[in-house]
Specification:
Elements (H helix, E strand, L loop, with lengths): L1 E2 L15 E2 L12 E2 L2 E6 L4 E4 L2 E2 L7 E6 L4 E3 L6 E6 L5 E10 L9 E8 L10 E5 L4 E4 L11 E5 L10 E4 L4 E5 L7 E9 L8 E7 L12 E2 L2 E6 L4 E8 L10 E6 L4 E3 L4 E4 L5 E10 L5 E10 L11 E8 L6 E2 L5 E4 L4 E4 L2 E2 L5 E7 L4 E6 L2 E6 L5 E11 L6 E11 L6 E2 L5 E4 L4 E4 L2 E2 L7 E6 L4 E4 L2 E4 L7 E10 L4 E11 L6 E4 L12 E8 L9 E6 L10 E4 L10 E5 L11 E6 L4
Parallel strand pairs: 4-11, 12-18, 20-27, 29-36, 38-45
Antiparallel strand pairs: 1-2, 3-6, 5-9, 7-10, 8-9, 10-11, 13-16, 14-17, 15-16, 17-18, 19-21, 21-25, 22-26, 23-25, 24-25, 26-27, 28-31, 30-34, 32-35, 33-34, 35-36, 37-40, 39-43, 41-44, 42-43, 44-45, 46-47, 47-50, 48-51, 49-50
Protein name: Dystroglycan-type cadherin-like domain-containing protein
InterPro entries: Cadg (IPR006644), Cadherin-like_sf (IPR015919), Ig-like_fold (IPR013783)
GO molecular function, one term: calcium ion binding
Amino acid sequence: MVVQAVETGVEDPLVSNQVIISVEVFSENDAPVVTSFDWSIIEDGSTEILLQGYDADGHELTFSIDEDVENGSLTSPVGNTVTYTPSENYSGSDSFSYYAYDGIAYSSDTAVVSLTVIPVNDPPTVSDTSIVIAENDSSFTLGADDVDDVDLTISFVPMDSGTFFGGSVEDNGDGSFTYSMGTNASDQDFILYKATDEISESSLGLITFNISGGTMFAGRGAPLALTDEVDVTEDIVKTISFVGFDADNAFSEDAFITITQQPSNGTIDDEFVLIVDSVDELAQWTLTYTPDPDFSGADEIKFTINNPSNPESESGEATISITVNAVNDLPTISAIEDATIYEDESLTLIVDVTDADNELILSHVSSDANFVTSIENSILLVTPNPNYSGTATITVTATEDGGENAQTSESFNVVVTSVNDSPQMTTIDDQITLEDEIFSIILSANDVEGDEFTFSELSMPAWLNLDGATLSGTPLNEDVGGQTISVFVSDASASDTVSFMLTVENVNDVPEIDVLSYPGTVDEDTEKTFQFIPQDIDLDNNTLSVTVTSLDMNLVSSDSIIIEPTGTFVSGDTITVTLKPTLDQFGTTSIILEVMDDDL
């Protein structure tokens, strides 16, 4: 650093010379800093979470979990990444805390990650069941489960053609159902059923009616492909059952299904799985249906089945009607790469965020207060403080404006690389000094990085001298006037220049006399002539007056001194003086020449 003293309390303060003091700052480890933030996840999902930490010394950080989650599982950190999996079917709040270690010190505080597990509808479940029918119009009940504990609706497949062997099932409206044999005279009958909530449905369950006294199996010819209605949750893959029934012939492993109409708002895979039921006359094929991203609404699939064991092997066409129920989509933020900028630069990034269902509110936070962040219209501006260099973790969070207020965050690092700053000269006001007087001024500068610097001249007159930080000299008569002085300060790689006007004001100089000839010795009663030239070194065109005086007026009186030409003169005129000594006088006298300008 540079130190100098300046007088205070006076109109024209004097400034001392400058002294450079070197200060050595020893590095001391700074503890790392960790950041708290919020995170959202869909029920029964899994998510990778990036822990956020910053170390001012640039040390590599090791993260550790302080308090674990209570409603799920959390992996140990790998780098700065952990994976959180909520407990099965859990929705609600959860949290964990963590800290960081830089190899020397632990973070002084722990940070908390607040987790929100957003509920997703869980489909109900049903199971196969057998019911003994002792008489026509027998009543029975069915069981179904749902972990969401919501009301369920029971429906039957096929919905429009009764049971497989001609019976029928009627909903009694009180949770019970009545089976009527109708034209069925066999010892068994079958129907499929499922449970639905407001969003999703169970897989199919088989109801077997064991009929007391039945003896005859009623044939139906060609196999049947069963129409069905299926509920699917948006963006969730669903396994769909395609059911076939053949009253006369058991299904063999060679039975197959043909898709006659593909879905228009989703896709199905090509891997059909044949499930031959315990009832040989019933077969199910399963495949997975994937709705188009973010789609909700109606879709359908049409199919036929083929049972090679039946002479009339191919069924008629059946339709699977699909309802894709909308769910809230979590916001997403595209990955933001780490960035490096130079000191005193800003970083501008476009934050790519999407949410199919809601408007989003973007927020941002920096792990280092030396980084100022702002965001407008998805454009993030990161501006480090002037002359600052270092690293910060910037976290951008997208939160739904409405819906379930779900949110997600993305973090990235910004590294500011140090750039040498030029030392800065202190401005110098225009200066005025007098001819023949000492002029001195102390130059001053500052270097924000504390680098040593030196002063140098760029443009100045020869009478000035720069010694260290002191600019001084004595101007002469020929230096009168104004001149621009330029000096600069420089460190190892940069410089700064300052200029000011220095005006040297004239101080009146005494005229001078150049004697061309001296009177010398003269004989009594004889005239003597000599010459001189008056000089005004100020060259200001002043008029000059000349007087010639004899110290012995008896020998040479004032009347006997003739000056030619007469009147006033200017610098450089030649003046002739004639001396006429008094008659009959002899001796010695001194002649005094005097020249005056207008300012004397």
